[in-house]
Design brief:
The protein is mostly helical and 70 residues long. It has one domain. Helices cover 87% and strands 0% of the residues. It has four helices and no strands. The longest helix is centred in the middle third of the chain and has 47 residues.
Length: 70
């Protein structure tokens, strides 16, 4: 039991967290980058949709105001 307490950090770390220099580390880094790009794309699409809705709402309101005044 004492050795496991002394080596607790290395027992809990996976090969990537422990500092392995191999293909698995490179693959994990690329996966994180890909997820970041996908997440940024989803956020950008969401913001673009909100901007579209705001512009369309203003356009419809202006058309309704124009119809009421004529």
């Amino acid at each position: 039991m004492l050795p496991s307490i002394a080596l607790a950090q290395s027992l809990l770390a996976c090969s990537i967290c422990f500092g392995s220099d191999g293909n698995s580390l490179q693959a994990a880094n690329m996966a994180v980058m890909l997820l970041g790009v996908v997440l940024a794309g989803v956020f950008a699409a969401f913001i673009a949709f909100i901007v579209y809705l705001a512009r369309r709402s203003r356009q419809v309101a202006a058309e309704e105001e124009q119809q009421q005044s004529s």
